[in-house]
Every structure is written in structure tokens, then in C-alpha cells.
Amino acid sequence: SGSNDVNVQVVVAEINRVLKNTGTTVDLENTLNIRKGNDVDFATLVNNMAAGAVDAILIAGVNPVYTSPAKLGAKKVSFKTALSKVNLKVYLGDRLDETGAEVDYILPDNHYLESWNDYNPTKGVYNIAQPLISKLFSTRQWQESLLSLAGNTATYGDYVQANWTAM
Length: 167
Hints:
This protein is of the alpha/beta class and 167 residues long. It contains 6 helices and 5 strands. The chain has helices at 6-18, 39-50, 64-67, 79-83, 142-149, 156-166; strands spanning 56-60, 88-93, 105-108, 117-122, 125-129. Strands 1-2-3 form a 3-stranded parallel beta sheet, with no helix packed on it. Strands 4-5 form a two-stranded antiparallel ribbon. It is flat and about 55 Å long.
């Protein structure tokens, strides 16, 4: 359903049952590990941000100013309003969007076709993605930016390859 709301999930499950999609289009045996957000944890983060309890935030690959609900948590504030209470805001993204417009620093991210990655999309399945195209602009993959901030000089491609070679 694309939603963490149990009521929405129940309605979507019933629609799929009526359409006889369960077991064909809808696979209940294999989990899909690509969207595992937690609405309660996100609302807690927004509450903490709004209360001034978050000193710094790194936002990578998402646009919560645009995609999050208009009012969140016990304080019923928007992510944008709560973000304004954070002292240091860093955005790692591939475009200047609504979230990027609200931060102190932007670290330009590669497009996914320019990037290394590894995935565990479903139980027991692991994949490595390598860049399909050369970098078009002066960007750095967000994971490589985190490595750099942590004092690691490896490229993210080298880091992924070393990790998988060691396994």
C-alpha cells in the first residue's frame, strides 16, 4: 500500500483478496526490504526537533519537507517548522528540492546511475550495483561523503568492493 497505516493496509489487502491477487501478484511469502519507515520513530524525531533537542541532522536521499504529513507528533508541527529549530542541518541529495532549500549545507549526491551500492531487497538475496554512467557533474555519492566526514579516504566504490571481498 505504500503506507504504514494499518487501516490502509487492511483495505489494500482486502482489495487484493477480492481481485484474487494474493499468491500471484501479491507475494506474502517473501518480504520486501526496500521501504521500512517507522512513523512512530519519525514523529518522535519531529517532536524532538521541535523541542530543540536535536543539535544536528543529516538528511540523505529523501525530501521530508515535501513528503511528510503536514502536522506530526504530539506538538502537531510540520517537519519544516521542526527543522528550523535544529542548529546544524546538512542535506545530501541529488537536487535542490524543498528540503535542500531549508538546510545550512548541501552536499551534492550522485544520481543513482552514477553510484555504487549494495542491496538486500528480499531475504537471502544480495545484489551489488555499479555505476552505469560516468559522473555528469561535480558530485559525490552520499555514502562517500559520510566516509569522508568520518575520516575514511576510501571511495564508496572501493568500500563496497572491499566489504564484499571480505565476506
